[in-house]
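*Target chain*
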Amino acid sequence: MPLDKLTIIGTGLLGGSIGLAARARSLAKRVSALVRRPESVAECQAFGVADEVTLDLAEAVAGTDLIVLCTPISGMAALAKRTLPHLKPDAVVTDVGSTKQQLVAELTPLCAGAAAHFVGSHPMAGSEQTGPAAARANLFDGTVCVVTPTGDTHAGALATVNDFWAGLGSQPVAMPADTHDRLVARCSHLPHLLASALSRRVLDPAHGEQQAQLCATGFRDMTRLAAGSPVMWRDIVGSNRDDILAAIDEFTDELGQLRGLITDDSPEAIEAWLQQAKATRDDWNHSADPG
Protein backbone atom coordinates (compact mmCIF):
# COMPACT_ATOMS: atom_id res chain seq x y z
CA MET A 1 0.00 0.00 0.00
CA PRO A 2 1.48 3.39 -0.94
CA LEU A 3 2.25 6.02 1.64
CA ASP A 4 -0.29 8.81 1.89
CA LYS A 5 2.52 11.36 1.91
CA LEU A 6 6.30 11.22 1.50
CA THR A 7 8.44 14.24 2.34
CA ILE A 8 11.95 14.76 1.01
CA ILE A 9 14.07 17.38 2.74
CA GLY A 10 16.89 18.36 0.39
CA THR A 11 16.58 17.76 -3.34
CA GLY A 12 20.12 17.17 -4.56
CA LEU A 13 21.17 14.05 -6.44
CA LEU A 14 19.85 11.61 -3.82
CA GLY A 15 16.80 13.55 -2.73
CA GLY A 16 15.84 14.34 -6.30
CA SER A 17 16.32 10.72 -7.37
CA ILE A 18 14.19 9.52 -4.46
CA GLY A 19 11.42 11.85 -5.56
CA LEU A 20 11.60 10.77 -9.19
CA ALA A 21 11.68 7.08 -8.30
CA ALA A 22 8.90 7.34 -5.71
CA ARG A 23 6.65 9.11 -8.18
CA ALA A 24 7.49 6.75 -11.05
CA ARG A 25 6.77 3.70 -8.86
CA SER A 26 3.70 5.19 -7.14
CA LEU A 27 5.19 4.67 -3.66
CA ALA A 28 3.23 7.62 -2.25
CA LYS A 29 0.00 9.35 -3.09
CA ARG A 30 1.78 12.68 -2.61
CA VAL A 31 5.48 13.53 -2.69
CA SER A 32 6.44 16.79 -1.01
CA ALA A 33 9.87 18.42 -1.17
CA LEU A 34 11.36 21.09 1.07
CA VAL A 35 13.99 23.38 -0.48
CA ARG A 36 15.95 26.34 0.88
CA ARG A 37 16.03 28.78 -2.03
CA PRO A 38 13.14 30.28 -4.03
CA GLU A 39 14.86 29.44 -7.31
CA SER A 40 14.97 25.78 -6.29
CA VAL A 41 11.18 25.60 -6.26
CA ALA A 42 10.88 26.16 -10.00
CA GLU A 43 13.90 23.95 -10.69
CA CYS A 44 12.48 20.99 -8.78
CA GLN A 45 9.07 21.46 -10.36
CA ALA A 46 10.65 21.52 -13.80
CA PHE A 47 12.45 18.23 -13.18
CA GLY A 48 9.39 16.65 -11.60
CA VAL A 49 11.03 15.51 -8.38
CA ALA A 50 7.89 16.10 -6.30
CA ASP A 51 4.18 16.80 -6.55
CA GLU A 52 4.59 19.88 -4.36
CA VAL A 53 7.73 21.91 -3.62
CA THR A 54 7.82 24.42 -0.81
CA LEU A 55 10.07 26.65 1.29
CA ASP A 56 7.84 26.17 4.33
CA LEU A 57 8.97 23.42 6.71
CA ALA A 58 5.62 23.00 8.46
CA GLU A 59 3.80 22.72 5.13
CA ALA A 60 6.28 20.18 3.80
CA VAL A 61 5.99 17.78 6.73
CA ALA A 62 2.36 18.24 7.78
CA GLY A 63 0.54 14.92 7.72
CA THR A 64 3.51 13.05 6.27
CA ASP A 65 4.06 9.34 6.88
CA LEU A 66 7.76 9.22 6.01
CA ILE A 67 10.43 11.92 5.95
CA VAL A 68 13.76 11.36 4.21
CA LEU A 69 16.53 13.74 5.30
CA CYS A 70 18.82 14.39 2.33
CA THR A 71 20.84 17.31 3.69
CA PRO A 72 24.49 17.51 4.84
CA ILE A 73 25.09 15.37 7.92
CA SER A 74 26.27 18.23 10.12
CA GLY A 75 22.89 19.96 9.98
CA MET A 76 20.53 17.00 10.29
CA ALA A 77 20.06 17.08 14.07
CA ALA A 78 19.21 20.78 14.08
CA LEU A 79 16.87 20.27 11.13
CA ALA A 80 15.14 17.40 12.89
CA LYS A 81 14.56 19.56 15.98
CA ARG A 82 12.76 22.13 13.83
CA THR A 83 10.79 19.44 12.03
CA LEU A 84 9.51 17.31 14.91
CA PRO A 85 6.94 19.76 16.34
CA HIS A 86 5.06 19.63 13.02
CA LEU A 87 4.87 15.84 12.67
CA LYS A 88 1.86 13.67 13.24
CA PRO A 89 2.24 10.89 15.83
CA ASP A 90 4.12 7.78 14.65
CA ALA A 91 5.65 9.53 11.64
CA VAL A 92 8.83 7.81 10.46
CA VAL A 93 12.08 9.67 9.83
CA THR A 94 15.03 8.27 7.89
CA ASP A 95 18.04 9.74 6.11
CA VAL A 96 20.66 9.11 3.42
CA GLY A 97 23.75 10.04 5.44
CA SER A 98 27.05 8.34 4.64
CA THR A 99 27.87 7.85 8.32
CA LYS A 100 25.46 6.45 10.86
CA GLN A 101 26.70 6.29 14.47
CA GLN A 102 26.42 10.01 15.13
CA LEU A 103 23.03 10.33 13.44
CA VAL A 104 21.54 7.30 15.16
CA ALA A 105 22.75 8.53 18.55
CA GLU A 106 21.35 12.03 18.00
CA LEU A 107 18.14 11.46 16.07
CA THR A 108 16.77 8.33 17.77
CA PRO A 109 16.01 10.03 21.12
CA LEU A 110 14.96 13.27 19.44
CA CYS A 111 12.33 11.50 17.36
CA ALA A 112 11.20 9.28 20.24
CA GLY A 113 10.61 12.36 22.38
CA ALA A 114 8.21 13.67 19.73
CA ALA A 115 6.31 10.36 19.34
CA ALA A 116 8.04 9.76 16.00
CA HIS A 117 10.44 7.00 14.94
CA PHE A 118 13.93 7.28 13.46
CA VAL A 119 15.54 4.54 11.38
CA GLY A 120 18.95 5.29 9.87
CA SER A 121 19.55 4.54 6.18
CA HIS A 122 22.40 4.83 3.72
CA PRO A 123 21.73 3.99 0.06
CA MET A 124 24.97 2.83 -1.57
CA ALA A 125 24.33 4.87 -4.69
CA GLY A 126 25.32 8.23 -6.08
CA SER A 127 27.89 9.98 -8.23
CA GLU A 128 30.14 13.01 -8.20
CA GLN A 129 27.33 15.06 -9.75
CA THR A 130 25.11 17.26 -7.61
CA GLY A 131 21.73 18.96 -7.75
CA PRO A 132 18.28 17.93 -9.00
CA ALA A 133 19.45 18.14 -12.60
CA ALA A 134 21.60 15.06 -11.94
CA ALA A 135 18.74 13.10 -10.38
CA ARG A 136 17.41 10.00 -12.09
CA ALA A 137 14.61 7.59 -11.29
CA ASN A 138 16.75 4.46 -11.71
CA LEU A 139 19.60 5.54 -9.41
CA PHE A 140 18.74 2.91 -6.80
CA ASP A 141 18.05 -0.02 -9.13
CA GLY A 142 20.10 -3.05 -8.12
CA THR A 143 21.85 -1.24 -5.26
CA VAL A 144 22.18 -2.00 -1.56
CA CYS A 145 20.74 0.29 1.09
CA VAL A 146 22.13 -0.16 4.60
CA VAL A 147 19.52 0.21 7.33
CA THR A 148 20.77 0.63 10.91
CA PRO A 149 18.09 -0.30 13.46
CA THR A 150 18.85 -0.49 17.16
CA GLY A 151 17.42 -2.81 19.79
CA ASP A 152 14.73 -0.22 20.49
CA THR A 153 13.69 0.45 16.88
CA HIS A 154 9.94 0.32 16.33
CA ALA A 155 9.10 -2.75 14.23
CA GLY A 156 6.52 -0.94 12.14
CA ALA A 157 8.90 1.94 11.42
CA LEU A 158 11.61 -0.49 10.36
CA ALA A 159 9.19 -2.27 8.04
CA THR A 160 8.18 1.07 6.52
CA VAL A 161 11.78 2.01 5.79
CA ASN A 162 12.70 -1.42 4.43
CA ASP A 163 9.64 -1.48 2.18
CA PHE A 164 10.38 2.02 0.97
CA TRP A 165 13.94 1.26 -0.14
CA ALA A 166 12.87 -2.02 -1.70
CA GLY A 167 10.18 -0.12 -3.57
CA LEU A 168 12.82 2.22 -4.96
CA GLY A 169 14.68 -0.78 -6.41
CA SER A 170 17.27 -1.21 -3.67
CA GLN A 171 18.01 -4.17 -1.38
CA PRO A 172 17.81 -3.22 2.31
CA VAL A 173 20.60 -4.73 4.42
CA ALA A 174 20.48 -4.33 8.20
CA MET A 175 23.64 -3.84 10.26
CA PRO A 176 24.76 -1.98 13.38
CA ALA A 177 25.71 1.64 12.85
CA ASP A 178 29.30 1.12 14.02
CA THR A 179 29.79 -1.79 11.60
CA HIS A 180 28.43 0.33 8.75
CA ASP A 181 30.78 3.20 9.52
CA ARG A 182 33.83 0.94 9.68
CA LEU A 183 33.03 -0.75 6.37
CA VAL A 184 32.16 2.39 4.39
CA ALA A 185 35.32 4.07 5.68
CA ARG A 186 37.21 1.52 3.56
CA CYS A 187 34.99 1.16 0.50
CA SER A 188 33.55 4.68 0.15
CA HIS A 189 35.31 7.30 2.23
CA LEU A 190 38.89 6.14 1.60
CA PRO A 191 38.46 5.96 -2.21
CA HIS A 192 37.14 9.52 -2.30
CA LEU A 193 40.01 10.84 -0.22
CA LEU A 194 42.54 8.91 -2.29
CA ALA A 195 41.08 10.36 -5.49
CA SER A 196 41.39 13.82 -3.98
CA ALA A 197 44.96 13.18 -2.85
CA LEU A 198 45.89 11.86 -6.29
CA SER A 199 44.41 14.96 -7.95
CA ARG A 200 46.30 17.28 -5.62
CA ARG A 201 49.61 15.49 -5.98
CA VAL A 202 49.64 14.73 -9.71
CA LEU A 203 48.12 18.03 -10.88
CA ASP A 204 50.32 20.17 -8.63
CA PRO A 205 51.37 23.15 -10.81
CA ALA A 206 54.94 22.58 -9.64
CA HIS A 207 55.09 19.56 -11.96
CA GLY A 208 54.61 21.72 -15.05
CA GLU A 209 52.01 21.81 -17.83
CA GLN A 210 53.21 18.62 -19.50
CA GLN A 211 52.23 16.57 -16.46
CA ALA A 212 48.58 17.48 -16.93
CA GLN A 213 48.81 16.89 -20.68
CA LEU A 214 49.84 13.29 -20.07
CA CYS A 215 46.93 12.54 -17.73
CA ALA A 216 44.50 10.50 -19.80
CA THR A 217 41.56 8.13 -19.32
CA GLY A 218 43.07 6.10 -16.50
CA PHE A 219 43.80 9.20 -14.45
CA ARG A 220 40.34 10.61 -15.19
CA ASP A 221 38.68 7.38 -14.03
CA MET A 222 40.82 7.18 -10.89
CA THR A 223 40.07 10.76 -9.85
CA ARG A 224 36.38 11.02 -10.80
CA LEU A 225 35.33 10.96 -7.15
CA ALA A 226 37.38 14.07 -6.37
CA ALA A 227 34.76 16.12 -8.24
CA GLY A 228 32.24 15.53 -5.44
CA SER A 229 30.98 18.20 -3.06
CA PRO A 230 33.74 19.36 -0.67
CA VAL A 231 31.14 20.48 1.89
CA MET A 232 29.45 17.09 1.94
CA TRP A 233 32.74 15.23 2.23
CA ARG A 234 33.99 17.59 4.94
CA ASP A 235 30.99 16.52 7.00
CA ILE A 236 31.56 12.84 6.27
CA VAL A 237 35.19 13.01 7.34
CA GLY A 238 34.29 14.88 10.50
CA SER A 239 31.62 12.39 11.51
CA ASN A 240 33.68 9.24 10.82
CA ARG A 241 37.14 10.40 11.81
CA ASP A 242 38.42 7.35 13.70
CA ASP A 243 37.28 4.78 11.13
CA ILE A 244 38.72 6.82 8.27
CA LEU A 245 42.05 7.16 10.07
CA ALA A 246 42.10 3.39 10.57
CA ALA A 247 41.37 2.85 6.87
CA ILE A 248 44.19 5.24 5.92
CA ASP A 249 46.56 3.30 8.19
CA GLU A 250 45.55 0.02 6.53
CA PHE A 251 46.15 1.49 3.09
CA THR A 252 49.47 2.95 4.18
CA ASP A 253 50.54 -0.56 5.24
CA GLU A 254 49.53 -1.90 1.83
CA LEU A 255 51.53 0.80 0.06
CA GLY A 256 54.47 -0.06 2.32
CA GLN A 257 54.28 -3.69 1.21
CA LEU A 258 54.20 -2.62 -2.43
CA ARG A 259 57.13 -0.27 -1.90
CA GLY A 260 59.08 -3.12 -0.37
CA LEU A 261 58.38 -5.36 -3.37
CA ILE A 262 59.54 -2.67 -5.77
CA THR A 263 62.62 -1.95 -3.67
CA ASP A 264 63.53 -5.66 -3.69
CA ASP A 265 63.24 -5.58 -7.51
CA SER A 266 61.50 -8.95 -7.71
CA PRO A 267 59.42 -9.21 -10.91
CA GLU A 268 57.85 -12.46 -9.70
CA ALA A 269 56.72 -10.99 -6.38
CA ILE A 270 55.36 -7.84 -8.04
CA GLU A 271 53.45 -9.92 -10.58
CA ALA A 272 52.00 -12.08 -7.79
CA TRP A 273 50.89 -8.95 -5.90
CA LEU A 274 49.22 -7.57 -9.03
CA GLN A 275 47.66 -10.95 -9.85
CA GLN A 276 46.14 -11.23 -6.40
CA ALA A 277 44.69 -7.72 -6.71
CA LYS A 278 43.24 -8.52 -10.15
CA ALA A 279 41.73 -11.81 -9.03
CA THR A 280 40.17 -10.24 -5.95
CA ARG A 281 38.67 -7.42 -7.97
CA ASP A 282 37.45 -9.76 -10.72
CA ASP A 283 35.74 -12.04 -8.19
CA TRP A 284 34.02 -9.08 -6.52
CA ASN A 285 32.93 -7.62 -9.85
CA HIS A 286 31.50 -10.96 -10.98
CA SER A 287 29.54 -11.45 -7.76
CA ALA A 288 28.30 -7.84 -7.79
CA ASP A 289 27.19 -8.02 -11.45
CA PRO A 290 26.73 -11.65 -12.48
CA GLY A 291 25.05 -10.59 -15.71
DSSP finds twelve helices and nine strands in the chain. The mean pLDDT is 92. The chain has two domains: 3-175, 179-288. The first strand starts at residue 3 and ends at 9.
